[in-house]
């Protein structure tokens, strides 16, 4: 891939395919994988034999790092974040890491502050507040 | 997707899908990363018979969940091994190495049963099973694996499950 050298998530350079693709947060992936795992469980007695190592590891990982366990909360997170004109990738990093302060959010996702995008500190602060509210009421 | 003629018949579609899952899930490519799970089949095209073998190739369009770490991305990972060169962490199927040059200077390596990196005042400790937040600064792609180099030497990076640090 010729773009390999230029790849930099901090500037949102992640390749065309991935900019267009839907990006999922850890908690969403956890829901999908768990659903799939349950389906497999119904089909055979020993589902761990059926799934690949990658699947198993991914499931463990997203379970461990899911900030929101409740499917409704997960939906709300996406809904709230999608009001702020974020790229898919930015939305997911924010949803995954749940930064608490504006500085932290900018450090995690530097691209939200670049090139005349409509995110001032106030907007970011409001967004983070909304996020922490979901967490509280989960 | 190549299929042996013995799979043809009424269950052709199911057979194609189950073979696709078996062959594709768990693989890894440099461009798309790890294919974790297939979530949907969009369409299965017309089969093409291969000359000489009888195998038939079907073009299949499908949706899947992939995991692809990007350079510059910040993510959370579990520490799996600590040694004096640095430490290894795992984020799902991906291995990440953080060299001791990329660990903050005030953290010292301590050997022993449970090798770890500790700050001089002992308040922060990185050892096996710690959860860390790190930034990926480089990726190397093998045929079957993606290997990353990470750093925790930046603002808001480092241990996250440590109660003293939370």
Mean pLDDT of chain B: 87
First-residue to last-residue Cα separation of chain B: 49 Å
Task: Name the helicity range of chain B.
Answer: under 10%
CATH superfamily of the largest domain in chain B: Nucleic acid-binding proteins
Strand content of chain A: under 5%
Question: Order of helices and strands of chain B, N to C?
Answer: EHEEEEEEEEEEEEEE
CATH fold call of chain A: Growth Hormone, Chain: A
Helix and strand string of chain A, N-terminal first?
A: HHHHHHHH
The count of domains of chain A is 1
Q: Give the neighbour order of strands across the main sheet of chain B.
A: 7-8-9-14-13
Structural class of chain B: mainly beta
Query: How many β-strand stretches of chain A?
Result: 0
Q: Rg of chain B, please?
A: 22 Å
Describe the model.
The complex is a heterodimer of chains A (138) and B (166). The longest helix of chain A has 18 residues, at 26-43. Helices cover 62% and strands 0% of the residues of chain A. Chain A has one domain (9-138): Growth Hormone, Chain: A, CATH 1.20.1250. Chain A is globular. Chain A is mostly helical and 138 residues long. Chain B has 166 residues and is mostly beta strands. Chain A binds chain B through residues 1, 7-11, 14-15, 17-18, 24, 29, 32-33, 36, 51-55, 57-58, 60-62, 64-65, 89, 93, 96-97, 99, 103-104, 107-109, and chain B through 25-28, 30-32, 34-37, 39, 65, 67-68, 70-76, 78, 90-93, 131, 133, 136, 154-156.
């Amino acid at each position: 891939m010729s773009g390999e050298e230029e790849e930099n998530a901090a500037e949102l350079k992640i390749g065309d395919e991935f900019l267009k693709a839907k990006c999922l947060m850890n908690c969403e992936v956890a829901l999908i994988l768990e659903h799939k795992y349950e389906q497999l469980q119904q089909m055979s007695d020993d589902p761990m034999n059926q799934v690949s190592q990658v699947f198993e590891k991914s499931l463990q990982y997203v379970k461990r790092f899911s900030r929101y366990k409740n499917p409704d909360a997960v939906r709300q997170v996406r809904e709230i974040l999608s009001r702020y004109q974020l790229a898919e990738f930015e939305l997911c990093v924010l949803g995954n890491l749940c930064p608490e302060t504006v500085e932290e959010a900018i450090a995690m996702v530097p691209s939200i502050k670049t090139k005349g995008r409509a995110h001032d500190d106030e907007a970011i602060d409001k967004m983070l507040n909304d996020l922490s509210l979901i967490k509280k009421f989960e | 997707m190549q299929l042996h003629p013995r799979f043809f018949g009424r269950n052709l579609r199911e057979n194609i899908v189950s073979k696709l899952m078996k062959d594709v899930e768990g693989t890894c490519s440099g461009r798309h990363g790890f294919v974790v799970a297939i979530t949907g089949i969009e369409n299965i095209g017309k089969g093409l018979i291969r000359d000489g073998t009888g195998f038939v190739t079907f073009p299949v369009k499908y949706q899947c969940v992939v995991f692809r770490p990007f350079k510059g991305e910040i993510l959370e990972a579990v520490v799996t091994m600590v040694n004096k060169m640095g430490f290894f962490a795992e984020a799902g199927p991906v291995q990440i190495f953080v060299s001791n040059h990329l660990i903050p200077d005030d953290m010292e390596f301590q050997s022993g049963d449970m090798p770890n990196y500790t700050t001089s005042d002992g308040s922060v400790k990185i050892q096996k099973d710690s959860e860390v937040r790190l930034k990926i600064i480089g990726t190397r792609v093998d045929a079957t694996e993606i290997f990353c180099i990470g750093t925790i030497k930046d603002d808001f990076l480092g241990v996250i499950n440590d109660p003293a640090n939370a």
